[in-house]
Amino acid sequence: MNSRQSVHQAASRADFPQPVCTFNHGKTPLYLATEIQIFEVNHPWYLTAGDRLAYSHWILRNVLNPDS
């Protein structure tokens, strides 16, 4: 996760770690770095844009269109 957009998309998932604290009237969450690292290990397609692209291609080949 290397952009605000990718962090926001990941943070909106139900299985993303909950913030330990929030600032700025709830607009700025604070997460434990170790929990984020565990999430990234369990969800490797979030690490880089290239990883996400490769994962989307894998989904296309193996799930959506397995006969090609």
Strand/helix succession: HEEHH
Spatially, the strands of the biggest sheet line up as 1-2
Query: Which structural class should the secondary elements be placed in?
Result: mainly alpha
Apparent shape: elongated
Number of domains: 1
Rg calc = 15 Å
So how many helices?
Answer: 3
Distance between the termini: 31 Å
Main sheet attributes: strand count, strand direction, barrel closure = 2 strands, antiparallel
Describe this protein with a few key phrases:
single chain; 68 residues; mainly alpha; two-stranded antiparallel sheet; 3 helices
Characterization of this structure:
This protein is mainly alpha-helical and 68 residues long. The protein has one domain (4-64). Helix content is 50%, strand content 9%. It has three helices and two strands. The chain has helices spanning 4-11, 33-42, 49-64, and strands at residues 21-23, 28-30. It has a two-stranded antiparallel ribbon with strand order 1-2. It is elongated, with a radius of gyration of 15 Å. The mean pLDDT is 80.
